[in-house]
Specification:
Elements (H helix, E strand, L loop, with lengths): L14 H27 L21 H16 L18 H24 L10 H10 L11 H20 L12 H23 L4 E4 L18 E4 L6 H25 L1 H6 L3 H14 L20 H24 L2
Antiparallel strand pairs: 1-2
Length: 337
């Protein structure tokens, strides 16, 4: 009977050991699900270039531009994960690429809504502004990261609803109080804003490697003065942690502009043909399409200009600079009689 003392008694795992394993398994599952959701929510959207005129989209001047703006706002709100820039919980709070992409899209939506309100919908400077656009434009300019009372999403939906009302009045032949004036000077007003945005983004992207730039703030104006003096040579460099933020903001800008350019090609078809400027607009769109080519690298590289590794910011800056130059040429064509 003493032989039982020499037998190895089976050991049972302690409840503490079992609890640790359970916690580890749950944590692994949460991380895997969070990683999968983060990957899906961070995917860039496909392009929905506006068709010229279909049964669902009547051929009414201005319809393509307003409809594309509405669809772009809807994408920000309804895409996988919804609107992410104001998320305060994981996995949305961990992400930064898509929120910066959203911001680039949002800035273009704000610019277009402002031009719609101040130029496209008004025949002259003393004409009355459209009531729906007077709601949409300030709603889009609401804070982009408010998560409570009111939320950013609620204000953007308010803007989209006002734009839908304006679009419906545009398409209604019985309504005479909604107009969209497709004139060369109006298109130039929007392109002037686009020109400034592209120029700024090109400079910010180029600053990823740091540059010593000659101060040209007052070039060409000997009598010009600035509020504070600046050195002749200015050192500009994007902080390392902000390089991918600027990159994805620029990608969002290019994506939104590509949609809006396609809409302008439809609504301003007669004006562009009269100025022989259709090809110039298509050249802008071609550069924007190249700027949106898929990124093969799992991360945004920041190599030196002629270094061993690539610099994705400089590549994107090249395309946006060419689009910027094409916009300048297009504006000059539209200004000619």
């Amino acid at each position: 009977m003493f032989s039982n003392w020499f037998k190895r008694r089976p050991t049972r795992p302690s409840s503490r050991h079992t609890g640790r394993w359970a916690v580890a398994i749950v944590a692994a599952i949460v991380l895997l699900l969070g990683g999968a959701l983060s990957w899906r929510w961070s995917r860039e959207p496909p392009r929905f270039l506006t068709p010229p005129g279909t049964a669902a989209q009547p051929v009414v001047t201005g319809y393509a531009t307003v409809d594309t703006l509405i669809r772009t706002i809807d994408w920000m709100l309804e895409k996988p994960g919804g609107y992410l820039s104001n998320d305060i919980a994981p996995p949305g709070v961990w992400l930064d690429n898509m929120p910066n992409f959203e911001f680039g899209v949002l800035v273009q939506c704000r610019d277009l809504a402002r031009v719609l309100r101040n130029d496209y919908s008004r025949s002259q400077s003393q004409s009355t502004e459209d009531s729906d656009l007077a709601i949409a434009e300030p709603a889009l300019n609401f804070s982009n990261d408010s998560w409570i009372f009111p939320t950013t999403e609620s204000k953007f939906r308010e803007a989209a609803d006002a734009l839908r009302s304006y679009r419906a009045r545009l398409a209604d032949s019985d309504e005479s109080n909604a107009q969209f004036y497709a004139r060369a000077d109006n298109l130039r007003e929007w392109l002037a804003v686009v020109e400034l945005r592209l120029g700024s983004l090109s400079q910010r992207l180029s600053a990823s490697v740091g540059q010593a730039r000659i101060n040209t703030d007052l070039a060409g104006d000997p009598a010009g003065r600035a509020s504070t003096p600046r050195p002749r040579v200015v050192l500009v460099k994007t902080p390392w942690l902000e390089i991918d933020d600027v990159f994805y903001e620029a990608r969002g800008t290019a994506w939104a502009l590509l949609q809006f350019m396609a809409a302008a090609e439809t609504d301003f078809e007669g004006v562009l043909a009269d100025k022989n400027a259709v090809v110039s607009l298509q050249q802008v769109m071609r550069e924007l399409e190249e700027a949106l080519a898929p990124v093969a690298s799992p991360m945004i590289l920041n190599g030196k200009g002629y270094g061993f590794f690539a610099n994705h910011s400089l590549v994107l800056a090249s395309y946006l600079s060419r689009a910027h130059s094409a916009v300048i040429d297009l504006r000059e064509l539209l200004a000619q009689g």
